[in-house]
Structure to design on (558 residues):
């Protein structure tokens, strides 16, 4: 027994770690990778463990795959002695981060480098947090790992400190915001900048508030984010210390234009004109309206929406039964208006046929007429097709029913078969224009309502090209030419779209061979000018209207 034990002990002393040569390590690591930093090779050699070489090699292979065409510059990060040592000590964790941050592992590693002390102590905990955030943005990892995503932690000390102490809670809050806002996450994170201390104090509460803001504001949530970010520097007191106040502000977006007014107040143009001191006073007055709801509604209420704001839950139930699948309190209030005005059955039918969600833009007479036209009902009058947007940032389109009333009245004002639809995307616009243009044998007059610029008409929110008609769509617009009756008229209720012969208005006129009216400046339609038979002969804008025929500006006043 003694002899066997001694032999075992002796054999153990002879099992020394095989030495690792730098050239051998380099050869193994660079077999299928770009040039590996000398620091990384040196740190692997220091371990003296062939098994560690294999683990590091596997991790680097995953990193290279995740980085794609940026593999060389990503591997170059490990020239940093600290980052290199962390990889060699924790190859599995780096491979996990790289796989989760597909396309941008370098940015994930920069986060690790920023929190190197925390990572060195608890590598799995920090890795889990980074992976959680990356996986929440699987469709667009750049939302997490860019200067407006997780990377802005580096510049916000309160949030960075909160992350270092409690990466689980902070990463769950970040993931929640990403899951809620998707491609618009960057706007939410900009808004977090002035609220950094409030976020650090209670990340879970912040995430809950941002989710509630999304539910409240729906399509207006970007406007709310922009306004909150812009006004922070002008707010005195504790506004940015309390997410409840931000949520209270967001609630007003469902029935008032207060958010838009705040955004205008803090615009650089307004600051340049009035000075920061005056703008601070203006913002203070606007925010004080949150505690004076009657004054707020009187001055900034959008159409009749304030009258139905307490019935939004009824509207929500009706909207969901009609087929709505998203949260947007303004839309729910509109459904509540429609339910009381024309009943639930007609409301559902109109939404499904015409895509209308903002019912309070239209009179009872207009809605009843639309309902009567559902199905195969014929109408031989010239077709007046009205295409309205689903992105009304200031509530301006709620007042259009008064301007339209001469077109939808009786007697000589019954010239047209008036059909109205709403579209959020250019695809929806094309589809519905074809549907009704073909059903009623040609469009005599087309009115397009949407917030405009010289180069585009916004149909939906955000910056997506799909959500607007712009100069890149001319070939698609030309395909609608056959839908128009002889000598058609097109009217743009869209600011600045008639700025000149290179603007979107002139381009549409050329595409359709139409006589087109458009505003040259930010303004609105004040009146439709009618002939004796009730047909439209012109449009009177509050200011700056222009006329085009086949893309060329026509002389004379409207």
């Amino acid at each position: 027994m003694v002899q066997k034990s001694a032999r075992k002990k002796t054999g153990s002393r002879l099992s020394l770690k095989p030495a690792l040569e730098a050239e051998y390590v380099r050869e193994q690591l660079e077999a299928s990778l770009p040039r590996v930093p000398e620091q990384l090779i040196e740190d692997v050699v220091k371990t003296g463990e062939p098994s560690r070489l294999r683990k590091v090699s596997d991790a680097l292979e995953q990193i290279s795959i995740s980085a794609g065409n940026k593999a060389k510059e990503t591997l170059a990060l490990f020239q940093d002695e600290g980052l290199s040592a962390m990889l060699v000590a924790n190859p599995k964790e780096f491979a996990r981060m790289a796989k989760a941050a597909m396309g941008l592992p370098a940015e994930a590693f920069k986060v690790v480098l920023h929190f190197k002390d925390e990572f060195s102590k608890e590598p799995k905990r920090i890795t889990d947090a980074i992976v959680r955030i990356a996986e929440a943005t699987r469709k667009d990892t750049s939302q997490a790992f860019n200067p407006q995503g997780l990377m802005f932690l580096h510049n916000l000390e309160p949030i960075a400190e909160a992350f270092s102490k409690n990466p689980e809670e902070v990463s769950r809050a970040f993931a929640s915001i990403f899951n809620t806002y998707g491609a618009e996450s960057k706007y939410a994170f900009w808004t977090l900048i002035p609220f950094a201390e409030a976020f650090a104090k209670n990340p879970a509460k912040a995430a809950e508030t941002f989710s509630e803001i999304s539910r409240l504001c729906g399509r207006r949530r970007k406007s709310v984010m922009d306004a909150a970010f812009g006004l922070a520097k002008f707010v005195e007191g504790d506004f940015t210390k309390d997410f409840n106040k931000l949520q209270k502000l967001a609630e007003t977006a469902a029935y008032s234009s207060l958010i838009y007014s705040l955004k205008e107040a803090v615009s650089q143009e307004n600051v340049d004109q009035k000075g920061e001191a005056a703008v601070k006073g203006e913002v203070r007055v606007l925010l004080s309206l949150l505690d004076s709801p009657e004054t707020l509604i009187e001055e900034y209420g959008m159409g009749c929406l304030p009258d139905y704001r307490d019935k939004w839950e009824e509207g929500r139930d009706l909207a969901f039964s009609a087929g709505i699948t998203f949260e947007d309190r303004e839309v729910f209030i509109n459904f509540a208006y429609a339910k009381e005005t024309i009943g639930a059955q007609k409301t559902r039918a109109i939404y499904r046929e015409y895509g209308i969600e903002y019912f309070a833009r239209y009179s009872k007479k207009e809605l009843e007429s639309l309902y009567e036209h559902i199905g195969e009902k014929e109408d031989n009058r010239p077709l007046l097709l009205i295409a309205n947007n689903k992105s009304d940032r200031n509530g301006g389109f709620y007042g259009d029913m008064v301007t339209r009333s001469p077109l939808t009245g009786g007697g000589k004002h019954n010239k047209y078969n008036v059909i109205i639809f709403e579209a959020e995307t250019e695809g929806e616009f094309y589809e519905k224009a074809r549907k009704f243009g073909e059903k009623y044998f040609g469009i005599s007059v087309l009115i397009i309502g949407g917030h405009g610029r010289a180069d585009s008409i916004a149909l939906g929110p955000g910056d997506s090209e799909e959500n607007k008609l712009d100069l890149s769509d001319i070939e698609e617009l030309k395909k609608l030419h056959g839908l128009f009756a002889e000598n058609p008229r097109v009217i743009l209720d869209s600011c600045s779209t008639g700025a000149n012969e290179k603007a979107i208005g002139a381009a549409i006129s050329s595409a359709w061979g139409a006589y087109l009216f458009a505003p040259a400046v930010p303004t609105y339609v004040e009146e439709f000018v009618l002939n004796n038979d009730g047909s439209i002969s012109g449009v009177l804008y509050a200011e700056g209207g222009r006329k085009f025929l086949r893309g060329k500006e026509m002389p004379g006043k409207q």
